[in-house]
Design brief:
TIM Barrel; four-stranded parallel beta sheet; Adenosine deaminase; 2'-deoxyadenosine deaminase activity; zinc ion binding
């Protein structure tokens, strides 16, 4: 090859990718939802065939409201209440990501939402991690090696965050890489869970916080100043603290935006999802490009592959088509993500130097 490969979906699938923000219960295959619903006797699905169900999830999530978007998870969580269900969903998650060229993924889910059929919190985590391990083994056999780790999420409207934080620390040597809080932001500030974050800091544990998605700059300020998070889940509303009177290079950053950029705090941006939930009005108005040009540590993520009918390759292609990015840009975003991963430094460096850089070198020609 004498030049770069064309930037299309097929070639982007070949590119090694790192994913930091992907919800396990937002990435099921529609066929799996149907089959698990039959197995566990769940009869409230809104459609009874694969095509119609996939379409329903996509259309229901495309509401412009985070609260309505979150309602779609009622059906996926309902079929993830058994050991077999959790193992299968986790196994298929790892395989699907690997088939799309993802070489490192942090997949998050809320164990407290999977207790309806008698499983304990520890059992929920054990079965999910077992599924990830099996999925990694199968992916490697298929020629698509991947490293999958897990973030344990606490629901911000509930009162179990300290318990989930302890669970994350208990399992951090067995496949759990960190902690997160998620759910509707408005009315549920991250400071409601300070005891969880204090426990995590005391135990030198990594954590991210959903902030600056549906709610504005105060959410980001609290997540950083009072909770001390390592990364920002979404964080698109950091632009509330950026004034661009003319050229991008003349942008004026406020105190919070400057802090985020100066400290290299990663932004887990999810383009398609951010449009669906109304966090941004449209893809061409997404602040991804502004933040990238201002040299924030931006990363590309899927959020919920089922609800957004997307993949990592699809998200990258949308950014290429919208903002004109090339291979070197996609490589930078991927290395940004890998630098920000919640795994030990030598492992991050190994994936960057041995997998990501050589993979992009081939694509760049």
């Amino acid at each position: 090859m004498t030049g770069p490969m064309p930037l299309d979906l097929a070639s982007i699938r070949r590119a090694p990718k790192a994913l930091l923000h992907d919800h396990l219960d937002g990435g099921l295959r529609p066929a799996t939802v149907l089959e698990l619903a039959t197995e566990c006797g769940y009869d409230a699905l809104p459609a009874d065939n694969v095509e119609a169900l996939g379409r329903w999830f996509r259309e229901a999530a495309d509401s412009g409201s985070l609260e309505r978007y979150l309602e779609t998870f009622e059906h996926t969580v309902a079929v993830m209440q058994t050991a077999d269900g959790l193992r299968r969903v986790a196994r298929e998650c790892a395989q699907d990501l690997a088939a799309d060229g993802v070489v490192y993924a942090e997949v998050r889910f809320a164990p407290e939402q999977h207790l309806e059929r008698g499983l304990t919190l520890d059992e929920v985590v054990e079965h999910t991690l077992a599924g990830f391990r099996q999925g990694q083994e199968l992916a490697a056999e298929e020629g698509n090696p991947i490293v999958v780790t897990c973030l344990l999420t606490a629901m911000r409207h509930a009162a179990r965050s300290r318990e989930i934080a302890e669970l994350a620390v208990r399992f951090r040597e067995r496949g759990v890489c960190g902690f997160d809080i998620a759910g509707a932001e408005a009315g549920y500030p991250p400071t409601r869970h300070l005891d969880a974050f204090e426990y995590l800091r005391a135990n030198h544990s990594h954590f991210t916080i959903h902030a600056g998605e549906a709610f504005g700059l105060p959410s980001i300020h609290e997540a950083l100043a009072f909770c001390g998070c390592d990364r920002l889940g979404h964080g698109v509303r950091i632009t509330d603290d950026i004034n661009v009177p003319g050229a991008v290079e003349d942008a004026q950053l406020g105190v919070v935006a400057n802090y985020v950029r100066d400290k290299r705090i990663p932004l887990e941006l999810c383009p398609s999802s951010n449009v669906q939930t109304g966090a941004v009005p449209s893809l061409d108005k997404h602040p991804f490009d502004l933040l990238a040009r201002l040299r924030f540590r931006v990363t590309v993520n899927t959020d919920n592959r089922l609800m957004s009918d997307t993949t990592m390759s699809g998200e990258m292609l949308k950014l290429v088509d919208t903002f004109g990015y090339g291979w070197s840009d996609l490589e930078r975003f991927t290395i940004n993500a890998m630098k920000s991963a919640f795994i030990p430094f030598p492992e991050r460096l190994r994936i960057i130097d041995d997998i990501i850089k050589p993979g992009y070198a081939v694509l760049l020609g």
